[in-house]
Prior knowledge:
This protein is an alpha+beta fold and 200 residues long. The protein has helices at 5-8, 30-44, 75-82, 85-94, 130-152, 159-185, 187-190; strands spanning 17-25, 50-56, 65-72, 98-108. The protein has seven helices and four strands. The model is unreliable at 3-10 and 196-200 (pLDDT under 50).
Amino acid sequence: MIEDKAVKAGMDENAPFTVVFSRRVKPGYERQFEAWAKDVTREAHQFPGHLGASFIRPADHAHPEYVIIFQFDSYNHLKEWFESEVRQRWLEQVKPLIEGEVHVEEFSGLEYWFTPPANMNTAAMQMPPRYKQVMISWLAVVPLTVLVSMVLRPLVMPDVLLLLIQPAIVLTLMTYVVMPRLSRLFAFWLFRKPNSSKRL
């Protein structure tokens, strides 16, 4: 059962939340599991606040975990899906296909933009420190804000409307275009294993 981490840690429950599941599939059941994963992600899409899902196959035989990433627009919507009877039924169906414990991680705020790329063992990764998240976000938002401002400047519109439109465009581009690419580009610096060196 999902814990109220947002409340305990003082997080904003209305901020986007991402949950990452890592599962080890029994040998020979990979095809059945992938069919199950496709169906369960489609089911999650029907729930309020669902922003998308990603499915990552094992990167190598040394780390055979499958990873499914669900993204919701708020903690409450994530919790609604997580604790739903629909999800519980899907979990019962997958039990014969998996082995070992399911690894679950929840991310919020800036962490929403930072998920390890597919060629990394997600279960063994730690989320980047906040200062790294801020630095990469700043690297993206400053030029993007300038560019969007230059594009919108020639348009004749009230200042209030401009103030509403510009952040919406910047946030959309950050979420769906810029940050996924920056996360992959700087993955070598952002994502490290728990026992990795703490060098910058």
